[in-house]
Design brief:
The complex is a heterodimer of chains A (about 400) and B (about 350). Chain A contains 11 helices and 15 strands. Chain A is of the alpha/beta class. In chain A, helix 3 runs parallel beside helix 8, helix 3 packs across helix 11 and helix 5 packs across helix 11. Chain B has about 350 residues and is α/β, with parallel strands linked by helices. In chain B, strand 10 and strand 11 form a beta hairpin. The chains are: A alpha/beta (about 400), B alpha/beta (about 350). At the A-B interface, strand 3 and strand 4 of A face helix 3, strand 3 and strand 4 of B.
């Protein structure tokens, strides 16, 4: 009998609980690539399996697909949910688990204000445009659902302010009611000479992660608090597919010189009279370095810090003063606001986000990896489009393993 | 110069703002606010206080627009000042929606509010039963905060407050030279004006902090107005109804209508029912009158009958009322004019 490491034993017992036989598992291990060519079966058709006796050692339909998502921020959890939603009924056994060092409220997602807004300039990767749109549409479709509150979702309108005229952003038709500011509106903001007004959404990280966790738990997804040291470790543990959603810490699993922390600090205040977001922009200083005010469901987030390469997790007094001074200058009523919290987070900054497959050779087998990290300061803004894409890549993996036919299928 | 003694009857938004304007315009005067109802028990306290004007029949549109503009500009400067939070004044954006295309597609006040435009098709999707709408940014004047703030401003200027129910204007003579009647619905009894009648309004004040936009049905009967401490859901317009107690059936109806506009309200909590009797009148009364009795004269400025639109025009009207008081004051100080009063 093969020596089974402890983590595998827990997996073993998990699948034993769901009725697969130990024989299947032992036979399955280490034989991922040496599968005999078979006639493709319609997805999920249990009745066909017993009629394929030459599959008795590897019941294609009855295989457990073991998926590990590393990372429990918005990217990890939404990708996990998207895959569950799309493939749960297709696969006999989808064993999906989430490994993470940090869970809500300690992730970077929790620090984000949660305003849906991509960067001002078009992304290098044109696919990101579609992913942003898909995310906005998906969230907007939930605005009237009873889930909206638990998801931390709300409509919000507001101002983007500039000192001089700028071109319209690529996302102007994704949001609602986009227009330029009128002269009288600009009078409210004496330091700025140009701007936009539109209606967007907020999706509050803390609530959304709690909601995603609930949805995943309902579907039998298990969560494990552990610090993953390498992708190999997870592969050796028996994972068929690893989804790497480790965000700003992805470099620890696989060096990525393109990935850097974009440190942010925010102050949360109680200021219920503030009903609009106000984002200022200083093209010379760069994104997120100019004051911004974003009302959430209960509290208002004040920010304006972006420090590339700074890994300091402690709140800085200097940054506090920068934020406070900048935001009070923008919105003097904030001087009456009560401060209720202050947080630091690290945007996973990358020239483009990384969303692609990779095969990892571990021992004699290949483990499939889907990378989904590097979303900078627009993770919440783009998360669902990326989750859909990651699910598509997952579907391709299933196709290649002949466990699933991607629609349209015509057998 | 003798101090002119001025009594302001009524401490709703009209009484208090008129008193402030008088204190700013008329030199050497003493002002006393006399009423039996102060905030939070005035009609104004029930109003959501959003600045969207009501059309007053009998008043020229240009006058209404001036009143609204003056009120909007004044509150704008408050909103931009350090007093904004203490005064309960803030900007709010939202939508006014119609089930059929209105005859007047652009209201007279469109260029007073900020960023007024027609709603886009995509925005209208949020309101499936509606075919047309306006999107704009306006001000909200949370009366439960604004009124105490006005009172404090007045007290800081030495204005006196007297809690007393005035039954007859002549009670104020000879203690006062000028009486400013801002008694709203009370004018029916106080001055025997039977054209003033209550337009009963019931509202719900709920907790729904995720709502950042106002929504108003074009008819004005159903609305959702998010404020500082609560969201106001309304409403009703019940002519001649004096009942100050909330009606449970009416509350259910208001809630149901508002949930149609904004389904997320189903999870609103902490629901409080409030009733206010709007002081309605065929036209608002803002004019001077000199009462004469037994050789005695009493200068009166009537300032009441604002119906559904009091908050939206209060400052513009108060400025005009203060001007009328000032005319009286000048006349009183000029012996030649006094005999002509």
């Amino acid at each position: 009998m093969l020596h089974v490491p402890k983590s595998n034993q827990s997996w073993l017992s998990f699948t034993l609980l769901t009725g697969s036989s130990a024989l299947d598992l032992q036979a399955g291990r280490g034989q991922k690539t040496r599968r005999p060519r078979t006639r493709s079966l319609p997805a999920g058709d249990k009745a066909l399996c017993p009629q394929q006796p030459h599959f008795s050692r590897r019941l294609v339909c009855g295989d457990t697909m073991r998926v590990v998502v590393i990372g429990a921020g918005v990217i990890g959890l939404s990708t996990a949910l998207c895959i569950c939603e799309r493939y749960h009924s297709v696969l006999q056994q989808l064993d999906l688990r989430v490994y993470a060092d940090r869970f809500t409220p300690l992730t970077n997602t929790d620090v984000a204000a949660g305003l849906w807004q991509p960067y001002l300039s078009g992304p290098d990767n044109p696919q990101e445009v579609e992913w942003n749109q898909q995310t906005f549409d998906y969230l907007l479709s939930h605005i009237h659902s009873p889930n909206a509150e638990q998801m931390g979702l709300a409509l919000v309108s507001g101002y983007n302010l500039f000192r001089e005229a700028v071109p319209d952003p690529f996302w102007k038709n994704m949001v609602l009611g986009f227009r330029k500011l009128t002269p009288r509106e600009l009078d409210v903001f004496p330091d700025y000479g140009y701007g936009w007004f539109h209606t967007s959404l907020i999706i509050e990280g803390k609530s959304y992660l709690a909601w995603l966790t609930e949805r995943l738990t309902e579907r039998g997804v298990k969560f494990f608090q552990r610090k993953v040291e390498s992708l190999e470790e997870v592969a050796r543990g028996g994972a068929d597919v690893i989804i790497n959603c480790t965000g700003v810490w992805a470099g620890a699993l696989q060096p990525d010189p393109l990935l850097q922390p974009g440190r942010g600090q925010i102050i949360k205040v109680n200021a219920p009279w503030i009903k609009h977001f106000i984002l200022t922009h200083d093209p010379e200083r760069g994104i997120y370095k100019s004051p911004y005010i974003i009302p959430g469901i209960q509290e208002v987030t004040l920010g304006g810090i972006f420090q590339l390469g700074n890994w300091n997790e402690i709140n800085s007094t200097q940054d506090h003063n920068t934020i406070w001074k900048g935001c009070c200058s923008l919105e003097p009523t904030l001087r009456n606001a009560r401060i209720v919290g202050e947080y630091t987070g690290f945007r996973p900054v990358r020239p483009q986000l990384r969303l692609e497959r990779e095969q990892l050779r571990v021992g004699s087998a290949n483990t499939e990896v889907i990378h989904n990290y590097g979303h900078g300061g627009y993770g919440l803004t783009i998360h669902w489009g990326c989750a859909l894409e990651a699910a598509k890549l997952f579907g391709k993996i299933l196709e290649e393993k002949e466990l699933y036919r991607m629609p349209p299928s015509h057998l | 110069m003798d101090t002119v003694r001025i009594a302001v009857i009524g401490a709703g938004v009209i009484g208090l703002s008129t008193a402030v304007c008088i204190s700013q315009l008329v030199p050497q005067c003493s002002i006393t606010v006399i009423t039996h109802k102060f905030t939070p028990n005035t009609t104004s306290d029930v109003a959501a206080g959003i600045l969207i004007p009501h059309a007053y029949e009998g008043t020229p549109i240009c006058t209404q627009k001036r009143w609204f503009r003056e009120t909007f500009n004044h509150l704008s400067s408050v909103a931009n000042s350090t007093e904004a939070v203490a005064a309960g004044v803030h900007l709010v954006s939202g939508w006014q929606i119609f089930r059929s295309i209105p005859t007047e597609q652009v209201p007279f006040w469109a260029d007073v509010v900020l960023g007024f435009r027609k709603m886009t098709e995509a925005e209208l999707k949020k309101f499936p039963q509606y075919v047309f709408g306006h999107a704009f940014t306006t001000l909200k004047c949370e009366t439960s905060i604004y009124l105490p703030w006005l009172e404090k401003r007045l007290k800081d200027r030495g204005v006196l407050f007297l809690r007393r129910r005035v039954e007859d204007l002549w009670e104020l003579q000879p203690s006062f030279d000028i009486v400013v009647n801002c008694s709203g619905l009370g004018s029916r009894e106080l001055v025997g004006d039977s054209t003033v009648f209550p337009l009963r309004g019931q509202v719900l004040q709920v907790q729904a902090p995720w709502l950042k936009h106002f929504i108003r049905d074009g008819s004005g009967l159903t609305y959702v107005y998010p404020g500082v401490s609560h969201v106001t859901l309304g409403g009703t317009r019940q002519k001649g109804d004096w009942n100050l107690s909330p009606d449970a059936e009416v509350s259910r109806d208001i809630f149901s209508r508002c949930c149609t506009l904004e389904p997320s309200l189903h999870r609103a909590c902490s629901i409080k029912e409030r009733v206010g009797l709007r002081p309605d009148r065929p036209s608002m009364l803002l004019q001077k009158e000199v009462l004469v009795r037994d050789g005695q004269r009493l200068c009166v400025v009537h300032h009441y009958g604002h119906g559904s639109g009091g908050v939206s025009v209060h400052w513009g009207c108060a400025l005009e009322a203060a001007k009328l008081v000032s005319e009286f004051t000048q006349a009183l100080r000029t012996p030649a004019l006094t005999s002509k009063l």
